[in-house]
Design brief:
There is one protein chain. This protein is mostly helical and 435 residues long. It has a single domain (13-429), classed as MFS general substrate transporter like domains (Growth Hormone, Chain: A). 77% of the residues lie in helices and 1% in strands. The chain contains 18 helices and two strands. It has helices spanning 10-14, 19-40, 58-83, 89-109, 112-126, 129-134, 143-172, 179-186, 188-199, 206-212, 220-229, 231-253, 255-261, 269-287, 295-321, 327-356, 363-388, 394-434; strands at 52-53, 56-57. A two-stranded antiparallel ribbon has the order 1-2. Helix 2 runs antiparallel to helix 9, helix 12 (231-253) crosses helix 17 (363-388) and helix 15 (295-321) runs antiparallel to helix 18 (394-434).
Length: 435
């Protein structure tokens, strides 16, 4: 349970609660995860047109292979990320990303059936990187702002690295299979620098621990107890998170096909431009949660912001169907609509639940529980879709994305409001019982 707010002491500030520390933490975390995306997403910039594997469209098979590795990584991360001590995080990040780059080398040179295996091996280590980076930021009074900056990296970087990938193919003649490896290699030097800087981020100070609760590694028994205690509310939130994971990952992995379905082709710059706008808007709005000292107030504000995001997604879809919205602004608005609630989970929802609870917990556990379930749902949908058709249909990808976003948003609003009511009552009961 949270402790009443007290102004930070000078000694607390000296231990790492200074603007310089916040800039170091946010900047290095943003840069590390930005670099990671150069090893994960460039392959999605290619369409692999007219290429199949066992009569199945190659692009869908590759997406499914990588997401399966990423999914397995998320399940592993529920234990590994929540238990890994701080001293081993930096080397773990470098080893995980280095392994992913080696898999991309194999993807470039091995025959097509083994390329599929290489993308599975590429996704397998990368799924744990986000939790390791986020662990440097959690448990601070500024966590929402810091985590919002981190989340901006996976919004902006996805578009940027795909723009880099298309630039390499269209301008320099790099092949579709070599391009992901080359893109990753370009980002290796800055990766080493920013991981070193991230490791130098000071740990949360005394006032941080008082207000946001101390964060430490969780045992298996503690993870089970935490989930059982708040299972009703967490199940609702995990349901919403799964819907978001499916829709926003579909937009990410099949962005080229969605843009083409909207009539936009061979314009590499649209990925970086649209996602930069989305990232800046989403980061600014989610970072605003740091003004709320009380955890329940922050949960209410974040839920309201998430509902607004879903409303934007619904509105953008309906207006685009009427032909009143350009392709560019449709992609920008649906990106804002999906990422506002998605990022709120990372910055505020789970952070404030852990902070308000009187039970041991950390952000890594809840995020990896949510990610593992969300990516399992996405992998299942991609698997079913891949088996149902022989060649990728751009119009079907666009329509499936739009319908998923529309109906998923409507359902999510109801589930979110129910979850908020649950946690308000649960935490109020906890406070009454401890009084």
């Amino acid at each position: 349970m949270s402790t009443p707010y007290e102004p930070p002491s000078a000694s607390d500030s000296d231990r790492g609660n200074t603007p310089a520390t916040w800039f170091l933490a946010a900047g290095s975390a943003f840069a590390v995860y930005f670099c990671m995306y150069a090893f994960r997403k460039p392959f999605a910039a290619a369409t692999y047109d007219n290429q199949t594997l066992s009569s199945l469209p190659l692009k869908s098979v590759l997406v499914l292979s990588q997401i399966t590795g990423y999914l397995v990584s998320k399940f592993i991360g529920v234990k590994v990320v929540s238990e890994l001590p701080r001293a081993r995080r930096a080397i773990a990040i470098l080893l995980l990303i280095g392994t992913a780059e080696l898999a991309l080398v194999g993807f470039a040179f091995l025959p097509v059936p083994l390329k599929v295996v290489m993308l599975f091996l590429n996704g397998l280590p990368l799924g744990m990187v986000f939790g390791l980076v986020l662990s440097y930021l959690e448990g601070r009074r500024q966590t929402e702002a810091l985590a919002a900056g981190l989340c901006a990296s996976f919004i902006i970087s996805s578009g940027v690295v795909k723009s880099v990938g298309q630039w390499l193919m269209l301008t320099h003649g790099v092949s579709e299979f070599m391009m992901p490896c080359v893109t990753g290699a370009l980002f290796l030097p800055p990766l080493f620098l920013f991981v070193w800087l991230l490791q130098r981020t000071p740990e949360p100070g005394e006032q941080d621990r008082l207000i946001r609760s101390e964060r430490r590694a969780m045992t298996g028994a503690e993870r089970r107890t935490f989930f059982r205690t708040y299972s009703s509310g967490l199940i609702l939130l995990l349901f919403v998170y799964s819907i978001l994971t499916v829709t926003r990952t579909l937009r990410d992995d099949f962005g080229v096909e969605i843009w083409q379905g909207l009539g936009v082709k061979e314009k590499p710059e649209v990925f970086g431009t649209s996602e930069t706008i989305v990232g800046l808007v989403v980061t600014a709005l989610n970072a605003f949660a740091i003004v709320f000292v009380r955890n329940i107030a922050a949960l209410r504000a974040a839920t309201g912001l998430m509902v607004v995001g879903f409303g934007i997604a619904i509105g953008a879809t309906l207006i685009q169907w009427q032909g009143e919205l350009s392709a560019f602004w449709f992609m920008v608005l649906c990106g804002i609509g999906l990422y506002l609630p998605y990022v709120a989970f990372h910055t505020t929802i789970f952070e404030r639940i852990v902070a308000e609870s009187d039970r041991p917990g950390n952000l890594g556990f809840l995020m990896y529980l949510a990610d593992s379930i969300g990516y399992l749902c996405y992998a299942g949908i991609i698997f079913a879709d891949t088996l149902s058709r022989d060649q990728a249909d751009q119009v079907n990808v666009l329509l499936f994305f739009q319908h998923s976003m529309l109906w998923g948003s409507l359902i999510s609003i109801t589930a979110l409001l129910a979850a908020l009511i649950y946690f308000q009552r649960r935490f109020a009961a906890d406070q009454t019982g401890s009084a």
